[in-house]
Amino acid sequence: MTGYINEVSLCEEDFDLLCNVATSIHSIHDMDVMLRNVLLKIKDVFHVEGTSIALHDRRKKEFYFIRTVEEQRDAGWINNDNMYFPDNYGVAGWVLKTKESLLIEDVSRDKRFTNTLDLQQNIAVHSMICVPMETRKGLVGILYALNKEAAKFTEKDLQLLKILSSTIAVAIENAQLYGELQRHAKGLEKENIRLKIELKDRYNKQGIIGDSGALQRVFTLLDKVVTSTTTVLIQGETGTGKELIARAIHYNGPLKNKPFMAENCAALSENLLESELFGHVKGAFTGADNDKKGLFELTEGGTVFLDEIADMSAAMQTKLLRVLQEGQVRPVGGSSSRKVDFRLITATNRDLYEEVKKGCFRKDLFYRIQVFPIELPPLRERKEDITLLADHFLKKYAAEFKRDEVRLTPGAINLLIQYDWPGNIRELEHEIERALTLAGEGEDITTAFLSKRIRGPSYQPDLTFELSTSLPAAVSRLERQMVIDALKQTGGNRSQAARQLGLTRQGLINKIARYKIEL
């Protein structure tokens, strides 16, 4: 007989059981330690003879059973041929195809079961539960529970294991990612590591955070240009940190003791921008009560940074070109020119070469300002830096809000890494500030506090618990998520949701108010 997962009510003892197992996942850095602890804990609390996990290799289209060091030591020599099998084979193949959990009370009556697989050493399988372990990236593997001791598997066992499977899947995915990063780091030559650390330390002073290959290429360009006064053009999407790069060039170069003046060309009208850059004389226009020096004069041997230069009008482009050619400015309303000395850095979120081809930007000015171009990668192309940036912003706003020891849970980090960030670093910063505000005092940042656009349509609740999480806090988090899920599944019908959860309607209303749930 087989059964599929149904909605069953969970009691406080069930929550205790979930917390008991979830807290055993205490290290995402050591796959073997984590798996050994969680499999032994499941075996103990569910009273089963054995547990196994088969991981899925999408590229090879096969499953393979994992063995902890302890299992290998206890079992001695293992027939590795029985550890790998096609992903369309047996119960695991059926679960992969249907994405459904499965309860089999008698495997001898189920055609999907095969006894040729090495589910676990020295165990004759009679009954089993098979649950898919999934993250947003897809199926990670299959969790098996084998032979319920002195009883039969129940639908509640099935539901509890399904809830736990998402926590285990995230832990496995994080452990795999950590292992890949470790292997990559060990493969780097010592000289490359030294250079990367040197470059990172050098520019982190200006707030540039990251260690991805894409950002390291930017650091290499910065290392070449900071020793000169070359004109630089920085191109990149909005929110990628173009002004930070400009400041890094200035404050790490020969002009670091001179002024750094910045102006956004898109923020001012043509007349105001001309006055800001070139200055004006008294009486040049209404409100010009005194002479005023422009940015080019005020800089006096330093750096002028013009952001969004592609938004500069054609007339202003012509005037800027004249300044660059002659090294002189004429204030608005003035009759004579004044000598100026400055280094120019410009930036734009458009492809300036394409703007030239369309006739929207002067070709001669383009070649004047793009002597040394730097292209900033969008955040979606440097995902390795998202964790570093998120941690930086979390510490920044935690200090501002006077919060202590706030962390991002593994599930939240996973969602942040998978999101494409069209608003780049600025969007990430605002998201962390928002999540910290929603979390309130004493709460870690879980997936529940992230925006809907980041959680995505296939959002799964974050049921990962740290050892430091108290039992009441863990139970409250799980209870809140179950209430939200029930309301969503019933289209907001509180009576149906209450029946599904085994509560009275008023009991559900009380929990909605307690957890401040808004759907």
Account of the 3D structure:
There is one protein chain. With 519 residues, this protein is of the alpha/beta class. The chain folds into three domains: 2-185, 2-Layer Sandwich (Beta-Lactamase); 207-379, P-loop containing nucleotide triphosphate hydrolases (Rossmann fold, 3-Layer(aba) Sandwich); 383-514, Helicase, Ruva Protein, domain 3 (Orthogonal Bundle). It has 20 helices and 16 strands. The chain has helices at residues 12-22, 31-45, 69-75, 90-98, 155-187, 190-204, 213-225, 242-251, 270-278, 295-299, 314-326, 352-357, 363-369, 386-400, 410-418, 424-439, 452-455, 471-489, 494-501, 505-514, and strands at 2-3, 48-57, 62-65, 84-86, 102-104, 128-135, 138-148, 232-235, 260-264, 279-280, 292-293, 303-307, 328-329, 338-339, 343-348, 372-375. A hairpin with an 8-residue loop joins β13 and β14. The longest helix is centred in the N-terminal third of the chain and has 33 residues, at 155-187. Mean pLDDT is 81; it is low at 1-6 and 68-81.
Count the E strands.
16
Give a short account of the largest sheet: 7 strands, antiparallel
CATH secondary-structure class of the largest domain: Alpha Beta
| Class from helix and strand fractions | alpha/beta
Count of alpha and pi helical runs: 20
Note the main attributes of this structure:
single chain; 519 residues; alpha/beta; Beta-Lactamase; Rossmann fold; Helicase, Ruva Protein, domain 3; 3 domains; 7-stranded antiparallel sheet; 5-stranded parallel sheet; 20 helices; elongated; disordered N terminus
